[in-house]
Write a structure and sequence with these properties.
By secondary structure, this protein is α+β, with helices and mostly antiparallel strands. It has helices at 6-14, 36-41, 48-51; strands spanning 2-5, 25-26, 33-34, 82-85, 91-94, 96-97. The chain has a three-stranded mixed beta sheet with strand order 1-4-5. A three-stranded antiparallel beta sheet has the order 3-2-6. Bound molecules: zinc ion (ZN).
Length: 103
């Protein structure tokens, strides 16, 4: 299990040096890489505001059956590789952002 503070999580996202819409995360179950743009293309929503709650949380396969899987971190079974700790000490499971170094 990888643990990051919210600041470290945001730094990992920034390190991709891309538009927030193109930042990629990896589903912990099927390993499919997915960005906000991918979720929009799959019909999860029309813009970042609408897909933000799924980004790094629900696999793209929930919206496009031809891709990924139906995993969501909101489900009963907890299976994830990353926990983001916010400034209140609350733990948020998230998909791993793809780091520059492992691309
Ligand atoms: Zn998946």
């Amino acid at each position: 299990m990888i643990t990051m503070t919210l600041d470290e999580f945001l730094a990992a996202i920034k390190s991709q040096n891309k538009d927030i819409l193109d930042v990629t995360f990896q589903c912990p179950r099927c390993k499919t890489l997915q960005s906000a743009n991918d979720l929009i293309a799959a019909g999860a929503g029309k813009n970042l505001d609408e897909v933000e709650r799924y980004l790094a949380f629900s696999c793209i396969g929930r919206f496009d059956k031809s891709k990924g899987c139906d995993w969501t971190l909101g489900g009963v079974f907890q299976f994830h590789e990353l926990e983001v700790i916010d400034s209140h000490g609350k733990v948020h499971p998230r998909f791993l952002p793809v780091m520059q170094c492992i691309k």
